[in-house]
């Protein structure tokens, strides 16, 4: 079982539009409403793969009730932590050429009592978990050290932690040695404080995160592929994608694929890449099922192309 923790979940509305024109009335060609948040998406992807996932998330107000209802309809076990504030609602505008514009609300303000209830709920639910995936931004009321505290408490219970967050929350958590962290290229550059222009730059940045405490780094480089850097070795992989429809939740799908394949080594990296590639070909934040995967399109090697320039360098 994979337990997910999403401190700042959302109700996501995605509109497909021909093109985004500022100041104009735009008629959507399609729309979806999905439960959102990085950890929620990981749970959805794990469940779509036929595996069990339990989602712990603070929920409040009408949006929170709707999220629980939508997740329940998808067969995901939800363990809500009741909060006084309303769960946030986010909007995504997906253009026909694959460009995505997102508007994310800040989320509710959690009280000290709600923060401790969230900690306690994770502790109780983690007893049967193979992995705990802690994902996403922190809502108001949770300090940047919150993830670090959660990693420390989970490790004390013998649990393995996958962490997908950014900024101060990521840097604070490194000192508690999360088992794997999953930054994208922008988050990786932010963490080390320098630009990334090549795959070699990304590798050096990932190695630095390991030096700071991460036991493994699964770094997503967008269309260029993914890097896995861990104690047993380093691997690089990519996949052919015929058409990009939406990249919402693609990184979350990758993390799910990585964890359900064991969470280490080239086989897990190949699974991560296959799941991420399948996700970008689906509308909105739809998570891929096994039938959507194309493992034959995935290549993984231990010969990292250090000099390869990134398609989208990060400054």
TrEMBL record:
Family, as annotated: Belongs to the carbohydrate kinase PfkB family.
Enzyme Commission number(s) of this protein: 2.7.1.56
Recorded GO CC terms: cytosol
A GO BP annotation: small molecule metabolic process
Keyword vocabulary terms for this entry: ATP-binding, Kinase, Nucleotide-binding, Transferase
Gene3D superfamilies per UniProt: 3.40.1190.20
UniProt xrefs under InterPro entries: 1-PFruKinase (IPR022463), PfkB_dom (IPR011611), Ribokinase-like (IPR029056), Tagatose/fructose_Pkinase (IPR017583)
The protein, known as: 1-phosphofructokinase
Enzyme class: transferase
Pfam families in the record: PfkB (PF00294)
GO terms, molecular function: 1-phosphofructokinase activity; ATP binding
Domain Carbohydrate kinase PfkB: 16-290
Keyword presence, ATP-binding: yes
């Amino acid at each position: 079982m994979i337990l997910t923790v999403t401190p700042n979940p959302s109700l996501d509305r995605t509109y497909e539009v021909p093109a985004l024109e500022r100041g104009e009335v735009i008629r959507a060609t399609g729309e979806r409403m999905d439960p959102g948040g990085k950890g929620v998406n990981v749970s959805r992807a794990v469940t779509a793969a036929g595996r069990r996932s339990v989602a712990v998330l603070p929920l409040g107000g009408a949006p929170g009730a709707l999220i629980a209802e939508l997740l329940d309809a998808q067969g995901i076990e939800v363990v809500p932590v009741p909060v006084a504030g309303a769960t946030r609602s986010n909007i995504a505008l997906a253009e026909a050429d694959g460009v995505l514009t997102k508007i994310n609300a800040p989320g509710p303000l959690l009280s000290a009592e709600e923060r401790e209830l969230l900690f306690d709920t994770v502790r109780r639910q983690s007893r049967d978990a193979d992995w705990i995936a802690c994902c996403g931004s922190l809502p108001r009321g949770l300090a940047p050290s919150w993830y670090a505290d959660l990693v420390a408490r989970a490790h004390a219970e013998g649990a393995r932690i996958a962490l997908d967050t950014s900024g101060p929350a990521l840097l604070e958590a490194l000192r508690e040695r999360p088992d794997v962290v999953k930054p994208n290229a922008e988050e990786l550059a932010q963490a080390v404080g320098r630009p990334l222009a090549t795959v070699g730059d990304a590798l050096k940045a990932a190695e630095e995160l390991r030096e700071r405490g991460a036991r493994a780094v699964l770094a997503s480089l967008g269309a260029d592929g993914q890097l896995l850097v861990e104690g047993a070795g380093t691997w690089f992989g990519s996949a052919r994608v015929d058409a990009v429809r939406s990249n919402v939740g693609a990184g979350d799908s990758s993390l799910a694929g990585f964890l359900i394949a064991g969470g280490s080594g080239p086989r897990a990296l190949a699974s991560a890449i296959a799941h991420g590639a399948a996700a970008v070909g689906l509308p909105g934040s739809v998570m891929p099922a096994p039938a959507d995967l194309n493992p034959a399109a995935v290549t993984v090697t231990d010969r990292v192309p250090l000099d390869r320039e990134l398609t989208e360098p990060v400054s």
